[in-house]
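Sat 14:20. Reprocessing the chain from the morning session after the first attempt stalled halfway. Input below, unchanged.
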Amino acid sequence: MIDSGSPRLAVIGLGYVGLPLAVAFGKLVPVVGYDINAQRINALRAGEDATLEVSAAELAEAVQLVFTDDLADLAGCNVYIVTVPTPVDAHKRPDLGLLLKASEDIGRVLSQGDMVVYESTVYPGATEEECVPVLERASGLRFNRDFFVGYSPERINPGDKQHRIADIKKVTSGSTPEVAEQVDRLYRRIVSAGTHKAASIKVAEAAKVIENTQRDLNIALVNELAMIFNRLGIDTQAVLEAAGTKWNFLPFRPGLVGGHCIGVDPYYLTHKAQAIGYHPEIILAGRRLNDGMGAYVVAQLVKAMLKRRIQVEGSRVLVMGLAFKENCPDLRNTRVIDIVRELQDYNARVEVHDPWVCAEDASREYGLALVTEPEPGAYDAIVLAVAHEQFRQLGAEQIRRLGKAEHVLYDLKYLLPAEDSHLRL
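Finished this time. Tokens:
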């Protein structure tokens, strides 16, 4: 095994998870940041992070970090940390393609005594059952004799400047007790909040998927409550504020559930559960409800428009926000797109405005041409879909000015006082 006092790290995948990790380690030890996206590598070399997770100053502080898209540059490393995306496919099945490709690439440069640590979200058992065989085939080495494996699930929260890597307790694990200790010691060097050494890799994998499954179910519950309260003519936010006066009431809010974690991780757990013959009912019920929120929002909007005698077909609708969460340019698995597509099915002319999102990314991912400056007085309906700070600063009066004399304003995120919008979740 390697000497944990002098690791030579490679971080595979330099997105929202990998880059902050590489920067944190790069202040202390030699790190090679590897990504297959040459454009991304060139931007990072120039001190620019399109994800906005790491500033140019922070990049400059990581004096031992170098960036590359050439696999050969990883050959001198002895610890490989894998942080590539693990999404679901169109049928909500786990897509391990990038993870297995990264494992194959690492196997080609893996040497005797090296260690591979996975951070990507997977179902329990995937590291040892799926990734390790790929490493063995590609390297010709034997697991737990010639190389070793750890798992330490990422806990990055995109756009959150208060909870960074150092501030979030890290779960660690390893393929042997000695490796588990080594992995734990490695992360303790950058995580001031401390670590939790899990009993096994499978325990660490399971811990990751239930963190977000729990949040998904709590949001699903509040979404269903919002549907009930809407029918009763009760303001959901007012109910939640009242209930929140009790010390142990959990402060969840209704809304769209997207992103690379909450809207994805439960499917990894349910996939594994079904593979062993168990059909998870509550988890999948929560997923179905949350996945259907876009259609529910549009149904409410259309009903409100018709009540005001606003023709839906051919109407101009402004959707404010496309990112999956506020103050963040991340488009992964954004469920705002469900609102857009549903409105397009009604033949509405949908325009999307998001000051955080790269127009090229929106075009490439969803075929959308973002509106840079919405036209005042032009819209039959406005949907406040993401709680960006820019929208909050606009205030109700300026947002309402974007609509026609007769329009509907749907505030999904409680950005405005109840009396300033026509609809709220």
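The mean pLDDT is 94.
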